[in-house]
Amino acid sequence: MAESPSHQFGQVIGDVLEAALRPALQDFANKYNLYLDKHGPRPAREGNKVTWTDKNGNKHDLDFVLERSGTANIIGTPVAFIETAWRRYTKHSRNKAQEIQGAIMPLVETHGTSPFIGVVLAGEFTQGAISQLSSLGFAVAYFPYPTVIKAFSTVGIDASSDEETPDEEFAARIVKWNALGLAQKDKVCQELRRVSE
What's the rounded mean pLDDT across residues 159-181? Predict the structure, then answer.
């Protein structure tokens, strides 16, 4: 079954969030001689996903992992697990917090090296969801919904929506986003980074 245009546009926002974070994580990795694993091909693993297995044999797909002694060809020791998440409505925020917790905490237990655990949230998240993650030791960075709207407005895309927004509007936004050049897409990422400084 095909994804709805609203879901597809949410994926665009999620991808932008990851892309905005990637340069800062790469700079950190370079500075401290770490390897940054991210979505995309890597000879050391199969496919494009960053997948780690816990002690019970369960696989968890992650956004970013920083590794000590890792290379493109060698899986290193994890020193940081970092997730990103976009949610438009607070009614989904607790479920997303629990999903992140369920992916990362078993890996922390498995690797026993006290890795850093972080999450970058964007959109609408309740204080309860944020507090739940913080209580488990997650470092939480949060981009509120208006910040995301402002970032997309820099390239003339209205990313605001509510439950009455028709699929046709989301479809038009996706077409407009896909028509942008790399420099324009990066402008949105730069705006998100700017407001986080």
Answer: 95
